[in-house]
Amino acid sequence: MTRVAVVGGHGKTGRAVRAALAARGAEAVPLGRADWRGAGGLAGALRGSAAAYLVAPNLHPDERSYVASALAALQAAGVPRVVYHSVASPYAPTMPHHLGKAVAEDLVRRSGLVWTVLQPGAYVQNLDLGGPVTVPYSVDAVFGFLDLADLGEAAATVLLEDGHAGATYELASTVATVRDLAARHGVTAERTETWTGEGHDERERSLLRAMFAYYDRHGLPVGTLPLAALLAASPQ
Question: Inter-axis angle of helices 202-218 and 96-109, to 10 degrees?
Answer without folding.
Answer: 90
